[in-house]
Amino acid sequence: MGYAAVLLPTLFFLMWNPQLFRAEGKIPKRTYVLFALFAALSAIDFAVSWKWGLQYQGPQYTAIVFSIASILSLLVFLLLGSAGLARMFERIPPKYNDALVGFVIAGVGLYILLAG
Structure pTM? Predict the structure, then answer.
């Protein structure tokens, strides 16, 4: 399981946006959809399982998980906003695309690790 935990997110990252190999900086629409879905599911999960988190994990752990998930969501939202502004200028540098996809995949991975 240890190697799979490293290799699967990496392969998913490369399959998610194959244009990285061509050094194109366009962010796929599916990235926006994935972020919206992830943010909505995270909010619902926190609202539904807050009581259980406090009961079984304690208030400190629950607050830390909530803080990390909120910060990651805000960072991705900020990157999406930056990408939207950059699209108005018809060019997004590849570093924005790489960072955005990386944060989305890291957020999903963190959600899976902490919620599972």
Answer: 0.51
